[in-house]
Structures are given as structure tokens and as C-alpha cells.
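Lab notebook, bench 4. We co-purified these components, and the gel suggests they stay together. Before we commit to crystallization screens, I want a quick structural picture of the whole thing.
Request: model the full complex, all chains together.
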Amino acid sequence: MYSKLVKWSCLFLLLFVLTACTDQQKLLNPDKPITVSLWHYYNGTIKEEFDTLVSEFNETVGTENGVIIETQSYGEIPLLETALFEAANESVGSLPMPDIFAAYSDYAYQLARKTDLVPLENYFSDEELAAYRTEFLKEGQFLADGKSYILPVAKSTENLFINKTDWEPFAYKHQLTNDVLQTWEGIYQVAEIYYKETGKSFFSHDSFANFIFTFSKQFGDQLFSIDKEGNASFTLTEEGGKAIWDYLYRPYLYGYFKKEGRFSSDDAKTGEVIAFISSTSGAGYFPKDVTIEQSTYEIEPLVLPYPYIHEDNQYVVQQGAGMSITKSEETHEYGAALFLKWFTEIEQNMSLSIQTGYLPVKNEIYENDLLIQELEHNPLKNKAITDSFIVTNQMLKNYTFFNNPPFSNSDLTRNVIEKHLYDKIINDLEILTLEVKNGRNRSDVLQEMISDEQFSEWFTHFKEEIESTLH
Amino acid sequence: MTKKLQWHKRSIASYFSLLTVILILVQITVLTSLLIFGGVFKQTKMSSYQAFNDTVNNRRDYLQQEVRNRWTNLTPYLPELSVAVSDPASSTEEIFDQASDTLIRILRLTGTTGAYLILDDPNLPDNQQPALYFRDYDPLTDVKNNRDIHVVYGPANIASKYQLPLDAIWQYHLTLTDDNEKFFKMPFDYSKEDIGAKYLGYWHKPFQLTEEDTPIITYSIPLKDINNRVVGVVGIELAVNYLTKFLPMTELQTKDSLGYIIANKNDEDEVYQTLFTTNNIQKRFLNPTNLLSFENVDEDFQIFSLSNHQTQDTIYATMAKFNLYEYNSPFQDEEWYIIGFMKSEHLLNYVFQIRNILLLIIVTLLVSGVASAVFISRKMSKPVVSLAHQVVNNNRMESLCLKKTGLQELDDLSKAIIQTNQFMLDSASRLSKIIDLVDLPIGAFEIDRQTNQVFVTGKFYKILGVEDNDTQNFETTEQLDALLKKTLARPEPDSNDIYKLTGKNDQWVRLKFSKSESHIYGIVEDVTGEVLKLRKIKHDRDYDPLTKLFNRRSFQNHFEEWLDEKTQGVAALIMFDLDFLKPINDTYGHKWGDYYIIEAVNRLRNIADEHQALLSRRSGDEFILLLHNFEHRDAILHKIRTFYEQLDRELLEFPSGEQRPIRISAGLTWIDETLSSKNYEQLLHHADEALYYSKQYNKGSFTEYTDQLNLFDD
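Here is the predicted assembly.
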């Protein structure tokens, strides 16, 4: 009798030990699925594609493993950022931190100071991480521990998008080649000719901040230097500032460049401009037709590499959020990692890219030209996306892709950089209109506005505002 | 060694098992009938149907409330819009500019994915209509500054003004095509009849504004200016993707749900047309034609089974109709339904569960019942079997010792067996003791052929001549068998069942036994005394007491035996008669006379060797001698002559001191082979005749008988 008791106890103990010694896979139970929350800022096409992929995951791998991904879109980055900070600060009425969130290095860095993020190394093997493009992965290595906190899922850079249908006759007429659009100088000149001939603007920037960052880098200047504590100081030289002034403020004031719509592609669609710098992820928005004064005509896209000042200094920005995992408990962290691994598998990664124009993140796709091959076999309806991929693929060979490393308040300073000169342009254009209305000579007013004194004044203000944001 | 339990028809084990199995079967029958006839299955099924139907109806009610209270709640905005479109001086762009704010509010407050104002302008070419169409792809997320609102149709300057992005399909004008025109034309065309705007609300089933656009459902109502002239339509859009969120599949089943679809049918049709599906699973099981036909399953709860689908499972469905249109309104024939689907395994989950539990109970009952039947009956019969085994294997010579079984009744039984056995043992030993007491030289044995056991009484071995310290060597059947066989090998001649033992002393036993299939019983009796006595009687009967020679009768027997067997050689029968015996007796007394006879006999004995001679005393002074197995008559004659010579030489001292020969007369007759009629009497007669002749004529000598010997002639 006694021995029987001992036997049963041993068996029981063994079972207990066996069930206790499980790998991470066993954390999940398909019969008791867990919900992994994911916050992102995607909207439009990418949101649709993203949702489709999430549904696919939920119906397949998620069902098998017991993970349900619950997504919440904040529509755009600033809103997501606000929600995340409120959650991290546990503000009144805020939601709990999501298990996964779409992260840019700058605010992820800030968030990491308030809440714990999970290093990818906890759930990804070295081999698994090595499959991602190093420069993309590097963006998430912003802490002193050198670990990765952002998994790249879809990246983007910037291209020059041109309304080919309108550009070609103009270029032909003026004996211009596409090459002339490869330098900022060339764009400026072409825009001047175009404006003077048509009275319309030629060019638009989607993101002022990106231009300022990239242009100053190409100029050989640097906006910020960051010390070991992650504090930045404003280091843009006056020469650098002047170049920006000359190539951004001046053409917008002259009307060679124009930004009226919400996005540059909207300006192209309404015929306000025929060329613009935009994110590759915006390639899907390249208009198929132009509507001017209620009449519509179809247009063809032309995609060119990002312009430079000089051939030797080809810098271009690298952006696009990745995904960060928030520290919770192992089951949810594991479920989050499971989703992200699946989401960035070649097939899903390519699918997302093809539908949205975002760049895939896996080395294998680039090494074997998988995306280009896929596009050759199944050309997209939207030619701009295809062309953008081809151009970006070339740029990956010649250009240095950079991202702005996060520092204290880097997200706020970015807003300043985005808005400061843009607001001045909008403001000055209104003043210009008013002054002309009041009978002043347009070119006189313009000369005053673009004068060196005006530059110095702006530069000082700009510097002051940035420095006040930094501290 | 224990025997394995075997199932016999009448064993305790089988009785127990049978009883238990019957009990279980009764239990199962009662349980099953209780569930079936008690209506548990039916009730559970009905409850499942009802729950399914309720869920779908509740979902329909919820959606209908959203439709009524939110999505189609356009009436409050109509006056503003009427005013906006009523100024004849305004251009279309100005009208839109004025209406844009209202439209954005409609979009926000109805919580739909789109809001539009379409004006009728027959002058525009290519079916174009002026339209202001805003879209919010994600109404659940509120964004400051309306930055999430896209302009689908309408002047770009309105987009600039609000900094709204243009939609990917943005056009200045809406182009009506055969595929999309209804959402404008249906309410617009009907509005020319004098019907109130709210009765002309038109739901357009899923369609796309352009090929690239996302599928949407629209609700449009005619818009009248302040002069009650219909100038266009105003409406809202619900993107199918967004609407899908209001049809959560998990509501029907947490996992692997087939979810809802929205379908429509015309009043008279029985076939439903899928308007849109809400998940990928549906695309897999639904017929690609998007037509659905159903078979009635339950009238009360409106449960149907989907008859055309692409899976093996039974798919149940229940539907609820949306009340989209008022009675007698122009579009009332279009009926929209929400249809919920469930696989039978999910819908009837509880029924299956109860059934499975019942099956489990039945199986458990059966298994545990059979197991316990086996266990209990083993537990019950094992001690019985073991007890029986112990009893069978017990040495009958010894007291029974039975192990306790732990069962009261059985232990009582074994106690009784032990007592009975002890009693039997006692009486057996009493019998033995009595036999011993009366000192009868009798022993008995019993061999149990099955158990190989030997049972013997006290004196058995002694009678069979086994030494006391040697008895243990004969306790097995084989050993005893050998002992008996050894004894049986030496039967006593001329007697039944008497055998001589091989001992130092002459000993005889009588051995009798009887055999049955299982046992050998036997009795052994020491008959040495009896045999010896018999032998003495025989001797007395056959021998002359004085001379120890065969008497007359015995001689005759022996002679006749010899005669029967005689095969070869020459033989003669000689009759002797002592001369002068009577005077000798008279002179010297009978005692000496006896001595004289003995001396005479001693001389007669020396005539021939024993194997050639057979001598007997016929009467007081007469002797008969058979000489046989001689080669010639001469040899016999020689022996006789030598005898007579011997008589003369060996003189006998008489009591008087005289030395005188013993005088014997004899008559000889040849026993010729050729003589056919020679019987004993005849031969004796012949010898007697010859003796007579000797007495008469040749006293103290012998005479050969011949035919010529005619005594009486003389």
C-alpha cells in the first residue's frame, strides 16, 4: 500500500516537472488565445494591407498558437506618439501600454526612458536578427546596451517623383535631360524656367524636415552633435543655414516651388506642381491623372533618385517606423515576437512592400532581387510603385542612407525643423500677396524678404527656438 | 502453485460478473432513457437553436439601431444643406464650399466612413456630376484638425482649405457609370414623385465608386432646395471593411466561427444573394456564385441548413431581416438580411457534449463494472479456489492446515473442513489402532493416482518385510508400486494371491487389490503360518510317517504324473516285500521291527539316484520302486543285482547280536514304451505277480514279470 502511494506520488511529481519544463512555445495555448495589442499610425492603403496581413495571421499562425493581434490605428505619427506617452506616463484616462507599437527611433528612445522595452535579442536569435538589413536594425540600437529595440518591418526613403506626361514636352522644348533634375541646383534652375514660362510652380517638398536634414548632410554640415548622455547641441553652421535658405525659402517665395495641398502628391494631382520629393511609401499616391480647373487628363509617372548637391555626397534619409515590444509578461512578449517574426517573413514583407511602396527589410530580398523579379512577373497597376522600387534599389548601391539618431527631445526639435521655415514661407507669401495687393512691387518685396539680413534674423530665431526645445 | 482462474458457467466469478454486467446495463438503460425520454437532448438542441437565433436577431437589432439613430440620421442637416444649394447666384464650388462644413459634421457625427453631396448637373459631359465627397477611412479614430478626412470628389481648394489629403481616386467630378449610378439615381429619380425624402432613402448594395476603390455601401436621400425642388442627393457611405467590424464573428463562436454575412433577396425569391462576406473562412465554404439556398431545419427558431456550400460539414444558418425601408416605399422589395452561420459541431456543441458525456459515462460504467466484476469475483473465488487447492493437495495422513482467507464465510467453511478432516483422520487412525490392537497381520494401502499420494496402515510395511527405518522410501506411488511388483513376482504355486517374500525367513503374504481410475486399494496379509500349516498337512497326506517315503496314494499320483510325461529311456516298476518281518516283529518287538524297516529303506534308497528312482511304502512291508530314465534294461537289472549283492554284504546287527542280511523279495515289471495299455494298476498287478513268484519260488531275490510267468498253473 505504501509503495503504491510512493509510485503515484513519483508519477505525479514527474508530470509536474515535465509540464513545468516547457519551452516558450508552450506558453501559448491555442484553446486559450491571448490578445496582443498593437498600436500603429498607418492609414489608407498601408493600413488596409496591414489589416489584411494581421487578419491572415490571426486566422492562421495566430489560431494555431493562440495569439490574436488586436490593432488600433492612430492615423498619424503625432497622435500615436501622444497616446504612447500618455500610456507610458499612466496619465488619467490613458490606455495601458500596447504589447507592440509602431516606433520611430526618436520617440521610442524617449519612451524607453519612461517604460521598459523588450530587447529583440530576448526573443530573436542572432541568426534571425542577422536576416534583417543592418542599417535598418541599427536605428533601433539607441541605448547604451547596444541591443535592438525596434524591429524594422517596412522602411522608406525619398525619391523624386515627376509628372512625366507634363515634364517631357517641357524638357524637350528646353533641351533638358532627366539628369538635370539630379542636383538641387538643376531643379532650382528648371523650376525657374518652368515658372517663368507657365506661371506655375514646378516642385514641392513633402517633408521640410527631411530636406533640411538631408540637404545639410549633403552640404557637409550637421544639424546636431550628440554627447554620450544623449543630449544634442545645435551645430548647423551659418553657411549651411544659408544654403537651406537659398534652396528652400527662396524658391518657395519666388513661386518656383509650391506646397498647397496636404501632401505634395495632392499638389501634383491638382496640377499645382509637376515634380515633388516624397517618401517612397507615398508612391502609391502618385496621381494617375491631373485635374486642373475641372478637366482631367491622365499622367505617367517618372521616378528619379533623390537629388544631391554634389555627386560625391549622396545622402538620403532612411525612415519608416519599426515595431517595438513593450515589457509585460512572457506570454504576451512571446506572442508579440511570434507575430513580428511572421510579419517580416519574406512573403509577408514583400506583400506589404508591393502594396504600399515601403521597402522590405530582409537581406535575402535585396541579395536575390526578389522584389524586382516579383514585379517583373506581376507588374503593379501603379507604375510609380514599381519605378520607385527600381530607383531605390539603385540608390541602395550609391547612396548613404542615414537616419537621425534620437536624442533628448529629438521628436520636438524635428517638429520645429519641419514647421519653422514652412510657417515662415506660408506667412511671408501671405504678406507678399497683401503687399502686392497694397500696390507694392512684387520683386521689391521679394528682394527684401530674401535678403541676407532677413536670413540672419531667421537663422537666429531658428537656432534659438531649436536650442530652447533641446533644453 | 495456484491454478489460473477459469470461467466456468457455474463459477462464482461468472455469477458475479453476470450480475454486475446486468446491473450496469440496467443503469445505462435507465440513464439513457432518462436523458432521451426526459427530453434533455431535444431541450438542449432547442436552446442552442434559440441562442443562435437570438444572437443573430440581437445583432440585427443593434445594427438597425445604428442605422436608424446614427448612420442614416441625416435629417438634422438637411435644412442647412437646402439653404446652401438654394442660392441661385452661387457657383457649384461656392455651394460646396458652403456645404463642406456640414458634410464634415455629418461624417463625424454619423460615425460613417463617408459623407457626400451630389448635385444634379445635366450639362456636364460624360455622365459627370458635381460632387463633394469626404471619406474617413477609420471613423473609430478621431483625429484633430480633420487631417484623417480624404477628399474623394470635389474642388481641390476645399482640400487645401482644410488641409485635407486627396483620396487616391480623387476627381473633381463624380463620374457615374452603370455600376455606381444607382446610389445617385435611385433616390434622385424617385424623388420626382411626391414622396417624402425619408421614404426615398436608398441603400445601395456593396459597390465601388471606381475600379480601384474600396467596396462601400451607401445610403442616399434626395436633397431639396428651399423651394422644394430636388437638386441632388446627400448620403453617407459605409465601407464594407468598416461594416465588417460591426459583424464580429467571435459573437457566434469564439474560435473558428463562420461569422455573419449580409445578403439580400427579392420578395418572391427563395434564393439569397451574398452582398458581402466578413471573413476569409466564408470565402472558402460559400458557393462561388454567391447564391445561397437553404433547407428548413427548425421552423420555430428559423434554423436552416445551407444546401449549397463547399464543405463536408453541415452548416446551419439563421437569418434576420433588416427593416431598411418603410412599407409601400419604392424600394421595399429589396430585402436585406443578416445571416449567421455555424457548423453543426459548434451549434450543437452542448448536445454533442451531453452525448459524449453520456457515452463516457456508459463506457466508464461498463469498464469499471466489468473490471470490478472481475476484481470482486476474483477476490471472491480466488480464496475458494485456493482453499480447494490446499485441501486437494493436503497430505491425507496429516492434519489440514488452511490459510485464512479473510472472508468470514470461507473461513468458517475451512474451519469445518479442518474439523471434518481431523475427524476422518482420527477415525482412520482409530481403525489402524484397532487393527494393531487385535494384532491381525493385516495392512492396507491406498494409492491416489491423481495426487500421487500413498496411504498405508500401520503394519503394512512390516508385513511386506520393509524395515521400520526404511519405510520413508516407499511413500510415493512409484516406490510403492515397485515394492508391490517385486512381491507379485513371486507367487506361491498352487495358491491364489499368495506370494513369497524375499527375506531371510520364509514368509508369505496374501495380496489383494482393486483398481479404479483414480485409486488403487489393497490389503496385504501375513499368511506364513497358514502356508506352513498347509504344507505340513500335505506332507502328512503324501508321506509315510516312518520312512518318510511317499505313501501308496502319493506314489500313485507321482507315478501317473511321470507316466504322462515320460518320453524316453527305459523304466521298470519294482515291488519289494520284506521277508520275515512278522517273525522279526514278534521276536524283537515292533520298535526294532520299525528300525529294521528303516534300515531296509535306507538300502532301497541307494539303488539309484533320486532322479532315476521313485520310492514309496505301499504297506507295512511292501515298497514300490520306479526306476526310470535308463538306457537299457541291463542297467536296471545291474542296479537291482548290485542291490542284492549289497544286501548280502551289509549285514544288520540284530538285537540278538547276530549279523544277518536283510532279506527282501521283489517283482519287476518293465514299463515298455510299446505297451499301450499300461496303467498303474496293470503294472502294479504285474509287479505283484512277479513278487508273488519270488515269494513262492525265489525268496530273497527278484523275479522279472513275463507273460509266461504263470504262477497259478503250477
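The two ends of chain A are 78 Å apart (CA to CA). Worth comparing against the SEC data before the next meeting. Chain A touches chain B at residues 31, 33, 43-45, 47-48, 51, 55-56, 59, 63, 72-76, 79, 260-263, 265-266, 269-270, 284-285, 287, 289, 291, 294-296, 381 (CB under 8 Å).
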